[in-house]
Amino acid sequence: MLNGLWLAFFLVAAVAGFGRWLVGGDASAFAAMVEALFAMAKLSVEVMVLLFGTLTLWLGFLRIAERAGLVAALARLLGPLFARLMPEVPRGHPALGLITMNFAANALGLDNAATPIGLKAMRELQTLNPRPEEATNAQILFLVLNTGSLTLLPVSIFMYRAQQGAADPTLVFLPILIATAVSALVALLTVAVVQRLRIWDPVVLAWLLPMAAALGGFMLLLGTLSAAALAALSSLLGNLVLFGIVVVFLIAGAVRRVPVYEAFVEGAREGFEVAKNLLPYLVAMLCAIGVLRASGALDAALDGIRWLVGLTGWDTRFVDALPTGLVKPFSGSAARAMLIETMKSHGVDSFPALTAAVIQGSTETTFYVLAVYFGAVGIQRARHAVGCALFADLVGVVAAIAVSYWFFG
Prior knowledge:
By secondary structure, the chain is mostly helical. Helices cover 78% and strands 0% of the residues.
């Protein structure tokens, strides 16, 4: 699947470039595409520099948590649930605790912590893979839930809005929470249908229903807070949880008499090795994405969508927010650029800018996650992972647009 997608990016870009030249007389697309190849190769290295530091840091702390028994304790706690969702993963396997920690970090908007934890979890799942080049059902479920992951505190979106002068940077908080909850639920149900998981099992419902009730209560509580209080809570909670995780790991290690410094260095060394192996996969995917963007294919798709929506007589204001949704599955940095450009062009509190912010907060960089998570363990055949993840992304975008009309329309 990844082979076909990667080739398709270049072929679509080539068709778009030749179309601009032969039909419109604009030959600049070829220069732009060649420039994008080198620019994306450079960006890949810059991303790797950040990943080197992040992976080294967090896999160091994770090794302390592992040796202190925290990861194993989480795995035992969630054993009954994952026995239904990931039946091929043995109860108590270290991957289960890591998966839980990854989901918690994603929910709190702690991307820097979530990625190294997720990579560690994927490597643990790979130890159970009888076909190392092909993704297992458990790896696919984990990856798709990552791409549709629930985000409780989209702090980065608040930051972008504040930078652009929004009167209330947290105005999009509840819309993002609702849209991302829909996306996460659809991601789980889609994989459950394809893999024929026992989603209606009493044990699964015993976990999911209280979580849904807790989420609903949290949303009601947050709805009573002022914008200033919500922004302060978001910032405090995100940073407090992040540093609290580090302190808990260190204290648990000290109580269990783990040599914390030696354990950190051991895990950090593993993080360095993981990061080193990611560069070829990042170069391949980011260069393909860069060529696709430079060809003008995405702009042409946007114009086509606007025309089709206009034929139906529907409101077309949301179309100006779609560039963020169109590029988000391919590149997080491109989506951020699209979001900021929409804020500048239409105004930070305009309907397109608000909708783009909700889309940005409720979707994930699917192909980046595929390249990094599967690339870290050498998986080349993704099976149904791409289809399920993109469907969850599509539902997330539709939900974001619908919720934006509900709140801001």
